[in-house]
Specification:
By secondary structure, this protein is of the alpha+beta class. The protein has 22 helices and 27 strands.
């Protein structure tokens, strides 16, 4: 592909980010050389390797290839029989040790684990452990050979130590004895690798030996005493022998390494390739990227794509498609709205995907293989500022038109800009039409209304816009397909303070047809916003319904479990009762059989009382729960009427009688918003408290019991009624409830659309004897109920 598009779409910045993820110099060099591929098989292989490396990172963590240093010169030296230095041999040892770690990382913990595309890389690595261990045994650092590298070297160094000790002993005896008065300092030093003592200049002739150096002032001579010349000569000879032996050891190690030059070169290649692959995976992990699906039909469908060079926390994801329903996409909208970013995102994703890199988008995003990607991005966001004039635009466009074919992807930013708007729009339409006729996949951004109309009136050409919030003067950066965008120049100018007079004058300069077209766009945009809002509300309702459904299902499951548990416990208790009864009966029979005809009646009576006490004790334990709550007196059907307050004994709930008992005693009781079927035997009447009516006068005092309260329910159900019907029923009910001196009542109106609730609450505001009203709380019916309190 052309190198220019790499700079324009900022592919080179992605490569620099990739380079930063590699951990070795050869790996970084491979990252720098990465370019998009055009063979689908190669792209799929590279994508598979990246995906498999990402999976391994998730499972085992990251991998470091830091010891993978270039061995090019070392291997060539070994091939021609040269001896390597200690530094070069340590580099080989480091590579082999790193190879062993990487190979161990690649081993499967489970034998049945599936083989992936990287398994062959790991299996082909040869750590050559004996060679690396031998190098580490012999060489301690880049400038130090171990004493145990060879027996000869160990012997030589032992002799050197002994000789050095003899020299020090001889010189120390001189420094601390006969020559002390002649010395500048009582120390032993070295000059040119030979041991000396610092002698004062005036006593130079008093110390026989060889002069090796003189101080800068001339006051001190460094003399090697004649007594240690022979020892120093021996030490020097030993040092030469040491260097020779080290050279022999290095030659031996080099010869061993030369036997494995092929394995070393292959290890170098595999380690570099693995470093490169894991760098791609690390970049994908950092960008939360996914593997795109590739096709040959030259279509693109990006789901929630994010530009990889923008802040992941701030960038707004976009959805883009091209090449299936339409092959030319025209993006419109105001400046700074995100048109250019959308354009670059599509182009950059194409380059990254074809280079084997994952893209920061949702999974199952779709890309196609293009042999070339051309981009003419000439605004201030472009890397090359020289593309800002019309002539440079045209030069670039002409080049694109000459080289592009049906397997190319063309991207144009502000097509036709920089010249007369009428001529620029005409040129832009002609260029796009030419590309459209040739079947070239194209995306272009523009401000021209003529291009919006062209997209609306031409088959396989689609409009898109970048959403802009005029109220806040900020773009939302959302890309909307199928909708032409507005430039919003007048609205933005007015918000920024431009006078209405100037704006109106500007509007008069616009053709009536253009105004109508912009108005249509505005209406479409308003409709779209409304529809999206309603869709979000519908989704919220769906989620709420699913949540309630799930909770109900969980509740039913708990009830079923509790039912099973209660039945199981009851069966166990019944079995225990039967067993104890059998034991008592058996015991009674045994006692009477044992007593015989001559038994004393007094003894039999004692035994009988004892057995009776045991039975009574068991009965008392079984009836503990019944004693806790006294049994309510039974009600008769003629004692109940609609509206009576009752308690359902088995459920512990309060409610009002909703229907009279049938022949079997079954009836309905309204408990809040729930209507429950029960039997008259399970009911107990709740006596209402005596109320005081200071506003009413009656002979015999003002404390009276209101018989009206016996027929007034504490709630009214308005479900299923129209607003007019509900308000009429509510009005009469509130009057009766107030006269019955109820403190508060419940108005059941349901949730629904909220229209009935609003009408009820609006009506309550105008009733003088209503003190306050509020929506029901949790357990009272929530927003489906209004609680009304009277004055």
């Amino acid at each position: 592909m052309n190198a220019k598009v790499f700079r324009v779409l900022e592919y080179d910045k992605v490569i620099r980010a990739l380079e930063g993820k590699a951990t070795s110099d050869p790996g970084r060099a491979l990252c720098r050389a990465l370019e998009p591929m055009t063979e689908l098989s190669e792209i799929e292989r590279a994508q598979t390797e990246t995906a498999d490396a990402l999976t391994r990172i998730f499972q085992k963590g990251s991998l470091n290839f830091g010891s993978n240093k270039s061995l090019g010169m070392c291997l060539r030296s070994l091939e021609i029989g040269s001896t390597l230095s200690m530094e070069e041999l340590l580099r080989i040892a480091g590579l082999l040790e790193n190879t062993a770690r990487v190979k161990n990382y690649g081993r499967s913990e489970k034998e049945e684990q599936a083989v992936d595309s990287l398994t062959e890389y790991f299996n082909c690595l040869e750590p050559l452990a004996p060679l690396s261990a031998e190098i580490r045994r012999c060489i301690l650092s880049e400038d130090e050979m171990a004493d145990d590298a060879s027996p000869a070297l160990k012997k030589i160094r032992r002799s050197m130590v002994l000789t050095g000790e003899r020299i020090h002993s001889q010189l120390n005896s001189m420094v601390n004895g006969s020559a002390r008065a002649y010395l500048q300092d009582a120390v032993v030093t070295t000059r040119d690798g030979r041991y000396c003592i610092p002698v004062k200049a005036e006593y130079k002739s008093q110390v026989p030996g060889m002069v090796h150096d003189q101080s800068s002032t001339g006051s001190t001579f460094f003399i090697e005493p004649a007594a240690v010349v022979s020892l120093n000569n021996q030490l020097r000879e030993l040092e030469l022998e040491e260097q020779k032996e080290i050279a022999v050891i290095l030659a031996d190690l080099s010869a061993r390494a030369a036997e494995h030059t092929v394995e070393l070169a292959e290890n170098q290649r595999l380690m570099t390739q693995l470093d490169f692959i894991f760098a791609k995976a690390a970049l994908a992990l950092d960008e939360n990227a996914t593997r795109p699906v590739f096709f040959r039909d030259r279509h693109i469908r990006i789901r929630q794509g994010r530009h990889p060079l923008l802040d992941r926390k701030k960038v707004v994801p976009i959805d883009v498609e091209l090449g299936q329903r339409f092959d030319l996409l025209i993006i419109t909208g105001p400046n700074t709205g995100g048109k250019t970013v959308s354009l670059k995102t599509v182009g950059l994703f194409t380059l990254m995907g074809q280079a084997g890199l994952h893209i920061p988008a949702l999974d199952r995003s779709e890309l196609s293989v293009f042999t070339e990607v051309f981009a003419d991005i000439g605004d201030e966001q472009s890397i090359e500022q020289s593309l800002s004039t019309f002539s440079s635009h045209m030069t670039s466009i002409v080049s694109i038109l000459e080289h592009a074919d049906e397997n190319s992807l063309c991207l144009f930013d502000e097509l036709g800009a920089g010249t007369d708007p009428t001529e620029g729009a005409a040129l832009a339409i002609a260029i796009l039409n030419h590309l459209h006729d040739r079947g070239i996949r194209t995306m272009a951004t523009t401000h021209y209304s003529e291009l919006k109309i062209y997209a609306l009136s031409t088959d396989f050409v689609e409009n898109a816009c970048c959403e802009f919030d005029v109220e806040t003067l900020r773009p939302t950066y959302r890309l909307l397909l199928g909708i032409p965008g507005k430039s919003n120049a007048f609205a933005i100018s007015k918000k920024l303070g431009l006078s209405d007079e100037i704006i109106e004058a500007a509007k008069e300069q616009i053709d009536e047809q253009d105004v109508s077209f912009e108005d249509v766009i505005s209406d479409l945009e308003a409709s779209r916003v409304t529809i999206e809002k309603e869709q979000r509300e519908i989704e919220a309702y769906k989620k709420e319904v699913e949540t309630l459904k799930r909770r109900l299902q969980e509740k039913n499951e708990k009830i079923d479990q509790a039912k099973d548990r209660i039945l199981r416990e009851a069966n166990e208790k019944a079995r225990d009762i039967l067993r104890e009864a059998k034991e008592v009966a058996d015991e009674t029979i045994r006692v009477f059989q044992k007593a015989g005809p001559g038994a004393s009646m007094k003894d039999l009576e004692k035994t009988r009382e004892k057995l009776r006490g045991s039975i009574d004790d068991k009965n008392s334990r079984l009836s503990v729960s019944a004693k806790k709550e006294p049994k309510a007196p039974g009600l008769k059907p003629d004692q109940l009427k609609k509206g009576d307050a009752v308690r359902i004994l088995s459920m512990g709930l309060k409610g009002t009688v909703s229907s009279l008992p049938d022949a079997k005693g079954n009836l309905f009781v309204q408990c809040g918003i729930l209507r429950t079927s029960t039997n008259i035997r399970d009911l107990a009447r709740i006596e209402e408290a005596t109320v005081t009516a200071p506003g009413l006068t009656k002979s015999g005092g003002s404390r009276i019991r209101m018989s009206k309260s016996f027929s007034i329910s504490p709630e009214i159900n308005l479900l299923g009624k129209t607003v007019d019907e509900a308000l009429a029923a509510l009005d009469k009910y509130l009057d009766d409830a107030y006269l019955a001196h109820l403190e508060s009542v419940r108005v059941v109106h349901g949730k629904g659309t909220g229209a009935l609730r609003k009408a009820v609450q609006q009506h309550l505001k105008h009733i003088k004897y209503v003190k306050s009203f509020r929506l029901g709380e949790y357990g009272e019916g929530d927003a489906g109920v209004t609680i009304v309190e009277f004055k």
